[in-house]
Design goal:
Layout lengths: L1 E6 L7 E9 L6 H12 L5 E9 L8 H14 E13 L6 H9 L4 E7 L3 H7 L5 H13 L5 E7 L6 H12 L5 E6 L7 H4 L6 H17 L3 E4 L2 E3 L6 H7 L5 E3 L4 E4 L2 E5 L3 H9 L5 E6 L2 H12 L8 H8 L5 H12 L3 E4 L2 E4 L1 H4 L2 H8 L1
């Protein structure tokens, strides 16, 4: 099932970061789903939008008329900033020349492509529908259509993958010349086919591969600005930066999440229930939670530490209105002494050693 995800953050000037979740798995119901999405979007009519992100599945599997319908929903209900960052997720097999041009004509100025790898062996392992040739062709189609802000997803450290295979893959994808790269490793979720196969991942090996990949990307002019994200000069994802800086946003569609000043809420995750509630003029929100000031402070710190620029604890304390608990402060100082974090003036940053165990550090702080 595909989700159309549109995130819209709030700020003092009533400017939003908007995400549409568009999951496509029941193609015959897509038009009805878009109708429901349009109805949900009306509650925010007139809001000023700073970034838009359409994802949650593979939106480009929609036909051209459906894509146009989706973009019309956005333009009818929201006021876009002149410099709005407008991203759509796509997979290589869904990006022919016609669709690449359509996205450009509709005002999509950033495309995120789920390339994953240029090695056919590992694409087959993942069960992807594209091969190396299709991936390279899809990128060329985007360039020919005039797209100049492209992100490529790169997965590494497959079971049994050698250093030589990783180097070949990273160099091949980096040499395509995209403006942005997002790194992923394989995760094994319960009940997935990898879980059923009892596939095991070696964390030490993943850490070594992470160092290798980051060094290679640096050679090709990609600057790391977040644990798993790299960009050419001034091409960082504004939409994702808003998340890591603890900003506000609205999500529309099945299973979409939203956040505003420490309050989070999320929509129902079943398509039938979502559409039924929309048709019955009922709320599609499944649940919500409100964080305490201390929870907000800690979350802002943990998200901020993902970024290379680090955090200024005093500024976060002042913005939220509470102080970091003493036991957390002592733990951070211990992390610094152990060489996982460093102080640069009043800024606290994670270094490479800390990035390799960031999840463990965060779990200890929580």
């Amino acid at each position: 099932m595909t989700s159309l995800y549109m995130h819209i953050p709030f700020c003092e000037k009533k400017c939003f970061y908007c995400s549409f979740v568009v999951s496509v798995g029941q193609q015959h119901r897509m038009d009805s789903y878009l109708d429901c999405l349009a109805k949900e979007a009306k509650q925010y009519k007139g809001a000023k939008v700073k970034t838009i992100y359409i994802g949650g599945g593979t939106p480009t599997f929609m036909n051209n008329q459906q894509i146009e319908k989706l973009i019309t929903i956005g333009r009818k209900n929201f006021n876009f900033d002149n410099d709005v960052e407008f991203t759509m997720e796509a997979n290589p097999e869904g990006l022919d020349r016609t669709k690449a041009k359509l996205l450009k004509d509709l005002g999509i100025n950033r495309v995120s492509v789920g390339m994953q790898s240029l090695n056919d062996k590992y694409l087959k392992f993942l069960g992807r529908c594209h091969d190396r040739q299709q991936a390279v062709r899809a990128f060329a189609n985007l360039r020919e259509a005039g797209h100049d802000n492209i992100n490529l997803d790169l997965m590494y450290s497959f079971p049994g993958q050698t250093d030589e295979e990783i180097e070949e893959d990273v160099r091949g994808i980096a040499q395509l010349g995209s403006e942005h790269l997002s790194l992923y490793t394989l995760t094994i979720e319960e009940h997935s086919r990898f879980y059923v196969q009892k596939l095991k991942l070696e964390e030490d090996c993943q850490a070594e591969h992470y160092v290798l990949v980051t060094e290679l990307l640096n050679q090709y002019g990609f600057q790391q600005y977040e644990v798993s994200n790299f960009a050419k000069m001034s091409r960082q994802s504004l939409h994702n930066l808003n998340y890591w800086m603890g900003g506000n946003y609205i999500g529309l569609g099945v299973g979409a999440h939203s956040h505003r000043d420490g309050k989070r809420w999320w929509n129902v995750s079943r398509l039938n229930l979502y559409m039924q509630r929309i048709d019955d003029h009922e709320r599609v929100i499944e649940n919500c939670e409100t964080l305490t000031e201390h929870q907000r402070l800690l979350e802002a710190m943990l998200l901020g530490l993902r970024m290379n620029q680090g955090i200024k604890i005093k500024e976060i304390e002042q913005s939220i209105g509470c102080l970091l608990e003493e036991d957390k402060r002592k733990m951070i100082n211990e992390f610094v002494r152990e060489g996982f974090m460093i102080w640069e003036g009043d800024s606290l940053r994670i270094n490479l050693k800390g990035r390799l165990v960031l999840d463990e550090l965060c779990s200890r702080l929580i």
